[in-house]
User: Fold this.
Amino acid sequence: MKKHIVVVDDDAAILDAIGLTLQEEGYKVTTFSRGHNFLHFIKDNDADLIILDMLLSGMDGRDITKAIKKDKDKKDIPVLMISAHPSAFKSVGISGADAFLPKPFDTLDLLLEVERLAV
Amino acid sequence: MDDTEPFRSRLTNSDYLDFLAESEKILGSSLNYKTTLRSVASLAVPKIADWISVDIFDEDGKVKQIAVAHKDPEKVKKAKMLRRQFPANKQHNSLINKIIKSKKTQFIPHVTDKLLEQRVQNTRHRKLLQSLGIKSVIATPLKVKGCVFGAITFVMAKSHRNYIKQDVHILEYFTDRAAQAIEHAMLYQESVLKQEKLDNLISQVPGIVWESTGHPGSEKEQIVYVSDYIRNLLGYNPSKLINNPKFRINLIHPDDVQKVLNQMGVVFEDGEEATIQYRAKCSSGNYLWLENRVGPIYKKNKIIGLRGVAMDVSERVEWEERRREFTNMVSHELRTPITSLNIYTTLLEKKFSEKGQYENVNSIIKMHGQINKLSELVEQLLDISQMELGKFSYNFSKYDLNKLVKKAIKKMNITYPDYQIDMQGKVSGLLIGDESRMEQAIENIIDNAIKYSPEIKKVEVILKKQKNLFCITIKDYGVGLSQSAKSKIFNKFYRGDTKERKTYPGLGVGLFFTSQIAKQHGGMVKIDDTNGKGTSFSLLIPQNEETYSSS
Assistant:
């Protein structure tokens, strides 16, 4: 069965590029550009991996991560946080994210992390 | 002695001793020398003299009579009028002028009419002078360190009393004592004025000027001076801090106290000036950012205290914070589109490849290389900015150097597909350090090797290990380095000395970063000798855990 990956990023190009790439690799992809839309979705749905941007135009990806990790049904879904912010590395671990990929990254970096996390 | 006594020419020693003892007391009683000299003058008449006049020469050369005494107040009035109408310094032959010129006592035992006549300017003058009844005169110079600043004139006006030579010495002694008292008072006044001037000057400084003694933070520390500006800046009375170092420490933000004490301690111990930034609490409860420039105070070659000026830099700190934010956001903004470009490019590469459109694949590969370059530049710009703000950070972990070198070479291959980058050698053992920074360091050297080797498109990367030292050698067959360039190559922004060298691309920061990163790992970069055939750099990193400094 195809693995389901949810991607949340407020940048449309990133969302599209990552979505296409993952689909090419055989994953099922659902994308969201707004944090609250994603939260709404994940309440009633499942995923094998969540790729989450840190700054989401009105929401902080770290807060979303904390919420997911607190939810007993969803806390086992791995979260890969991505960010272009230089000091993101430090605070991401505290939020409970399972991995961090700093932007800019290329396809290879992304696919390696996805393979590793979406087991 | 009274008027009816028979002719007596001399004053007895006891008369003088009484006078000297009494006048010493009076002169020492106050710093207001005008008052004391007037008291002494009235003491002197009629015992020591019938008339006494104390004159001071002021800066303009005018003679100012600060005391004149005679038993008869009417006569005093006349004497004052005489001075007013016929000022002393204007009279050519006056005793005062003689004293000014010769700096010596003028003694006229018998004032004859003839002598008096020499000084008369007109009839009225003669009348006034005669009414004073001057019979015998001793005029002594008031002087300090050989400099004459006035005169005391003693006059006998009764025909049966004259001064004799012995009187001169005693009166000179008295005048010397008076001169000392006057000088003392003047010096004190001068010092008070100087202090006022200094205080005024200090109050103009837009910062808190301060001085302390003893090791900062110790029991022995004392705050000896705090300028008034602390009132303006923080709203405290300077007296609150004087000799109350605890109060001063309580003003510092708790998170900054240790740093301040440490840095001040270093100034006290090493004598090196320091600029310390910290937050200080105002009387209102708010915190201000202060920048305190601190230096040592020496006494006999030993440091006994500290002095400094603390200025308000809140505005600047806030601005720096905003700039930092700006720089972070700039990099964020630039990194985001680069990421999607990367991913799209890879996607296209794959698609064209699947369809066998190899020409297109080629173009895409070139595109990807350029995106990499763009990305590298952005990262370099961000690094420069971070380094300048003191935020060039390191994250330490254990990693395999072989894998890292391979990754770096792969990345360089994407940016420069025309070049052949050979990897030779293998090392065992893990390296403890910042993986991405080390990758950056290696990539920078390879980047340089390629840039300065436009003809021969080959670079060699050789891995070796000597005992605990990892050695990565990067060799190129390019234009090489001049002797002068070798010493400057690791300098920030250095791009070569000659016009020809400046025609090569680059920001001049790659090797600077490499050397900084090497240093942070306890290692170094060195330039190997190539016998003129290109350039070879060796990055030496020790494996030893203990040599790494924490970031």
Remarks:
- Residues 377 and 507 of chain B are 8 Å apart (CA to CA).
- The interface with chain A takes residues 328, 331-340, 342-344, 346-347, 350, 375, 382, 386, 391, 395 of chain B (CB under 8 Å).
- The two ends of chain B are 97 Å apart (CA to CA).
